[in-house]
Amino acid sequence: NKLPFKLESSVRNNWKLLVQHGLDRETTSRYDITVTCTDAGYPPLTSEKNIRVDVSDVNDNAPTFTQVAYTANVMENNVIGGSLFSLTAYDTDTGQNARLNFTILNSVVASYVSIDSQNGVIFAQKSFDYEQLKKFQIHVMVLDSGAPPLSSNVTVDVVILDQNDNAPVIVNPLPEHGTTVMETISRFAEPGYLLAKVSATDHDSGQNARLTYHVFQATHRNLFTISEDTGEIWTIRGIETKDAPEQRLVIVVKDNGIPSLSATVTIVLSVKGGDTISSATSLSKDH
Questions:
Q1: What's the number of CA atoms in the CB half-sphere (13 Å) around residue 139?
Q2: Number of H helices, E strands in the chain
Q3: What is the pLDDT at residue 178?
Q4: pTM recorded for the entire structure
Q5: Which of 31, 81, 134, 285 has CA atoms 20 to 30 A from the CA of 117?
């Protein structure tokens, strides 16, 4: 007999139905027992009694999160008050013993996030800036409503993702008048002459900070070229007498974000007469 019950005689023709080992409502919440009574006559006669036993719940199971730890990826510039993440916990007890409440334990993040105590949804209390805050951790407790209450804790790692919200900033050459830089170049500069180097930075990260350099506008398109990767500006050919004495180059620096952001600098070149500049010596010139 695998039932956790037994019959025990107390007085003549009186029997007690007793529990012979512990009951676990989470395993079996109800038992339907049939007790049969048979006399000793011939032929024997019997009678049956059906007894239903419902096992009541005690708060013997702590609530459990669906994972031992969580990671929430949040794009920066998020909406204040928006949902960031949802925690799920369960309790195998029932009724009040399974009624759960969520609480954030570390008060230091109270200015960052809040949590709905009933459903475990985490909301943003501020708009995050990846350049200022890249990650933080939330410690959450789930507590049931039993007596005494039982609880479990979990950690949520919040990772702020970079958004392409910073345009490149040109740091060299520094414009003297707005976005215009004045430079000179010898009329005798040979092909391959290193004229200048444009440098820029981007406060974003990853592909959002990967920069490329391009000639956006030029007085003579076939006179200068720029390295997309380094920003170095070179002469393609020698300067001819028919070329304008003042050359204008508009350089654009683009990042690789979506959508791409950019910055421009205008370089105005005054062509001056002078000695021939060889490409070998010009390569060693550091701008």
A1: 7
A2: 1, 22
A3: 75
A4: 0.74
A5: 134
